[in-house]
Design a protein that fits this description.
heterodimer, A: alpha/beta, TIM Barrel, B: alpha/beta, 2 domains, 8-stranded parallel beta barrel, 3-stranded antiparallel sheet, 15 strands, 21% strand
Chain lengths: 296, 325
């Protein structure tokens, strides 16, 4: 089982973003890293100047680098941006919307968790179009994951194993709306919340996290306790989604459990210290409400 | 522009056709369609009869098989496709690429529409469905402004269908797991959003509290009507403020935009609401029929009268107006 670091979903300061990846390159035991702005096209220009050196540093460290595509593409500018991913040298594009299949169909590519692959027929269709890796949608139960992995053994199946779960994407920017701004003049207020803005219910239950046009779970997915089931189900890779916590340490815990050096329970205690005050959840995998945590 | 109307039941289908629908859309009473609520939808026999009735009146029947087939159980969805074709459906509304692939191979003559659940929001995505499955029409997701829709219709030969009235999804359809996160039931998999089975109302000293899957979605004062706890239209709090953070409890009403949508080259107008009764179907269809007639005659299209059919007696033009974002 391998580890993939998913793209940073939040609006981090560009230098913080760059330094995050430099440290991942130097210290994190992950096999591959997905980079690029996938949530809001307006943020992309901030990171682009640093992208070449980030890719170079990650590649030099032996990581496979994938370039993630935008999740919701509606503007002409976004279509151009998406099409330009096809020029990404020998690297794989991770498709998050079918928009970019036009420019890369037939070439090997990866499918990200934002493309709806809920069954073996869809997985086989995409495999025939050149998909070599598929990170499945986070809401899929293990029974579906296993059925898909079993049906397309030539495709590396990945699941979302750590991080706040992306639950929805909208044309409307909720961060801007909250600050009484329009999306077109948002002043990039989402940068104030580098781990998303906590949304609580009127009875003070922490519920969701707002990240611009994206809505995430408040709970952090944690499939450490499910690794045996995932292995048996044919899953070949785990996705760790960057949060504003020590992701190098998080990836080390996952790697230690995978290598059999540490028990899952002990690693989980470490994760709770690394990412405090955030509940863990794995309900989706067990066919339960995604917010819930089902003990092994 | 064609008027496409919801038919949650055979009775609603009859009402819609009598009120002047050009086409109705409906689904089977199971998890293959995205409005999988108890007491709604069609048996195979009812669909055959519905198609016959609609065709006698010159109306079409579009069958929505627009959830994403469950892994290991895709046969159930294949049967739905085969049976809808056999029943004489004028088009199938599909969301899953595997199911589109099956339909295009098995029933190459069958007209295929891309469901809003497929979230095809631009020309390149639409081209994918046209080139791979011969899709003839795309139901556009509710994320586009009218000028953006015009650009799409200019650049694609595929027909476009847009929502003009009813419940408003504020998240891109087919890409939202909020309901699944709170309740374990998913629009994409089980065909339900914020399902009634997971709703609880509770009287508290502060008023009526509505909960969905254990999460408080709203609270209403003594004299305030308690609306349905649709997750994205609830009241929530943040460090920056509280209120309807995602969307108010409103309905979409694009009545005043019809001229612009026609100019934009839209082929069909869709009314949401398969879970609504005959009175809704009858009232809303007649309203849009008369506005379209006025539009064709070059008359004023300012036609009030839909308030009773809206959520919270309030409406929005949603993403059609760029400022909504």
């Amino acid at each position: 089982m391998q580890l993939t670091l998913g793209p940073v979903l939040y609006n981090w300061q560009p230098e913080r973003w760059r330094d995050f990846y430099f440290r991942i390159a130097d210290e994190a035991p992950v096999d591959r890293v997905v980079v690029g702005e996938v949530v809001c096209s307006k943020r992309a220009p901030f990171f682009e100047p640093y992208l070449p050196e980030v890719i170079e540093r990650l590649a030099a460290a032996g990581k496979q680098v994938l370039l993630g595509s935008l999740v919701l593409v509606s503007l002409r500018r976004e279509r151009r941006q998406t099409a330009s991913l096809a020029e990404f040298g020998d690297g794989l594009v991770e498709v998050n919307d079918l928009t970019c299949l036009k420019s890369i169909a037939g070439r090997p590519h990866a499918i990200g968790p934002f493309v709806n692959i809920y069954n073996e027929a869809s997985a086989a269709f995409h495999a025939a179009k050149g998909a070599t890796r598929i990170c499945l949608p986070p809401e899929l139960p293990l029974s579906s994951v296993a059925a898909i992995a079993g049906a397309v053994p030539q495709v590396a199946i990945e699941v979302f194993a750590f991080g706040r779960v992306p639950l929805a994407i909208s044309a409307r920017c909720y961060h801007a709306r909250l600050h009484k701004l329009a999306k077109d003049n948002c002043r990039f207020v989402c940068e104030q919340d580098p781990d998303g803005l906590v949304v609580t219910t009127l009875e003070d239950q922490a519920f969701l996290n707002m990240n611009g046009v994206q809505t995430l779970s408040h709970a952090c997915s944690n499939l450490l306790g499910d690794l045996d089931r995932l292995k048996q189900g044919g899953v070949r890779s785990l996705r760790l989604s960057p949060q504003a916590c020590d992701m190098v340490a998080v990836s080390r815990q996952f790697q230690a459990v995978l290598a059999g050096r540490v028990e899952a329970e002990a690693a989980e205690l470490c994760l709770r210290e690394l990412y405090p005050d955030v509940p863990f959840a794995n309900g989706f995998l067990h066919g339960a409400p995604g917010a819930s945590y089902v003990s092994a | 522009m064609e008027l496409i109307c919801p038919a949650g039941t055979p009775a609603a289908l009859k009402s819609a056709v009598e009120a002047g629908a050009d086409a109705v859309y409906c689904g089977f009473a199971d998890e293959t369609n995205a409005r999988n609520f108890p007491g709604l939808n069609f048996s195979r026999e009812q669909l055959r009869e519905g198609v016959a009735l609609a065709h006698r009146r010159g109306a079409k029947v579009l069958v929505a098989i627009n959830t994403f087939p469950r892994a290991g159980a895709v046969d159930l969805w294949h049967r739905a496709v085969d049976d809808a074709v056999k029943a004489g459906a004028d088009a199938l509304i599909l969301a899953d690429v595997g199911l589109m692939d099956y339909t295009a191979r098995r029933h190459p003559e069958q007209r295929l529409h891309v469901s809003v659940q497929a979230a095809a929001a631009n020309v390149d995505a639409i081209a994918f469905y046209v080139e791979n499955f011969g899709a003839r029409r795309v139901v556009l997701p509710r994320v586009l402004s009218v000028p953006e829709i015009a650009e799409i219709t200019r650049e694609t030969a595929c027909e476009t269908e847009v929502f003009v009235f009813g419940g408003l999804c504020v998240m891109a359809e087919g890409r939202c797991s909020l309901s699944s996160y709170a309740t374990g039931k998913s629009p994409n998999m089980q065909g339900v959003c914020s399902p009634p089975s997971h709703v609880v109302y509770q009287e508290t000293p502060q008023g009526t509290t509505s909960r969905l899957g254990g999460f408080t979605i709203n609270r209403f004062g003594r004299n305030e009507p308690a609306g349905y706890p649709t997750l994205c239209k609830g009241r929530f709090s943040t460090a920056q403020g509280a209120g309807y953070l995602f969307e108010d409890p409103v309905s979409l009403d694009a009545t005043t935009l019809l001229a612009g949508l026609r100019e934009a080259g839209v082929t069909a107008l869709k009314i949401e609401g398969r879970q609504r009764g005959r009175a809704y179907v009858d009232g809303v269809v007649r309203h849009f029929r008369s506005v379209l007639a006025a539009l064709d005659a070059g008359l004023s299209t300012e036609a009030p009268g839909l308030t009773a059919f809206t959520e919270g007696q309030a409406t929005t033009q949603g993403a059609y107006r760029k400022t909504w974002r």
